[in-house]
Amino acid sequence: MNESVRLAKRVATELSCSRGDAERHIEGGWVAVDGQRVEEPGYRVAPAQTVGLLPGARLEEVRPVTVLLHKPAGLYANDEPGSARDLILPENLAGDDRSGQRYLKRMFNGLKLVTPLERAASGLLVYTQEYPVARKLQEEARLVEQEYVAQVSGQLREGDLARLQRGLAYQGRAATPMKVSWQNETHLRFALKTPDPGFIEYVCETAGLRLQALRRIRIGRLPMAGLAAGQWRYRLAYERF
């Protein structure tokens, strides 16, 4: 009989290793079937197919990842197909990424957006598998400062900038001070604790300004820095929000 078997079983047999180590090799991206990398332990292989380890194969600790992505304006920011998450592809990885992480399918297991952003806005998003990062940016969001650049039209009246810096109440959230300054004649810079969606547009409208575009450039201590629109990188081990 030429019945197919699970790839994990085949690797365990050929390497004389445990099924668990076989699965780790496969999910680590070190196993090829007929010369093509396969990362699914349940993949079915026929007896005639060639199965082997790729050069440099090693058993590695499975480490959760956090991804920083520059979302272009107009894309939804969520965990569904058709959203900014679709940009997390090998070809969009920033050329100066220094993480040393290999792009593997397992990085999408439980990968979750933890920094909502309006569809019309662009800027930094964070997707993570790491519980401490998710807790910091969700449960402790009110303590995390974010920085935005808002392109606006209109003029501020005398005293409006100082009024904005004192903060505004919004949808049941009490007013808290924020840093607001002119970057140039058409761009305002905001630094404030994680705002609710729509808050900055509301702030602009109360001051007689029209929001033309909004870009988030920093979350906590991590700036978007050199990420071009559509690019992403891995959070480095020493980086903290």
UniProtKB/TrEMBL annotation:
PROSITE patterns for this protein: S4
Enzyme class: isomerase
Record's keyword terms, sorted: Isomerase, RNA-binding
EC number: 5.4.99.21
Record's catalysed reaction(s): uridine(2604) in 23S rRNA = pseudouridine(2604) in 23S rRNA; uridine(35) in tRNA(Tyr) = pseudouridine(35) in tRNA(Tyr)
Species: Achromobacter agilis
Encoding gene per record: rluF_2
Any Pfam family: S4
PANTHER family tied to this protein: PSEUDOURIDINE SYNTHASE FAMILY PROTEIN-RELATED, RNA-BINDING S4 DOMAIN-CONTAINING PROTEIN
UniProt protein name: Dual-specificity RNA pseudouridine synthase RluF
One Gene Ontology molecular-function label: 23S rRNA pseudouridine(2604) synthase activity
Residues in RNA-binding S4 domain copies: 5-70
GO biological process, one term: enzyme-directed rRNA pseudouridine synthesis
